[in-house]
Design brief:
It is built from four helices and no strands. By secondary structure, the chain is mainly alpha-helical. Helix 1 crosses helix 2. The chain starts with 7 loop residues before the first helix and ends with a helix.
Length: 88
């Protein structure tokens, strides 16, 4: 799989969020360059684990839905005469 990357707008938002986190929760603020480097580390080191978990969860959900297709989409066959009989 290719490296996980953010588009420019999302990257800018992520860096701003990291900087805000540091301002509110850490003793020292962080600048744009260190925040960008930290983001790069997260994207390279941690994001693949999160991505793989999301793919696994989606795969499990899709498999559950496919396994239940017969139950959800099954339509009784040749039911016209049975309906007519019930109406009488």
């Amino acid at each position: 799989m290719a490296e996980i990357e953010l588009d420019k707008a999302k990257r800018t938002e992520a860096i701003a969020s990291l900087k805000r986190y540091f301002e509110e929760h850490m003793p020292e603020p962080i600048g744009d360059l260190p925040a960008g480097m930290l983001l790069d580390f997260f994207l390279e080191e941690i994001a693949p684990a999160v991505y793989n978990k999301a793919v696994s969860d989606a795969s499990t959900r899709i498999q559950q839905r496919v396994a239940d297709l017969d139950g959800e989409l099954y339509v009784d066959e040749f039911g016209y005469w049975a309906k007519q009989k019930r109406r009488r």
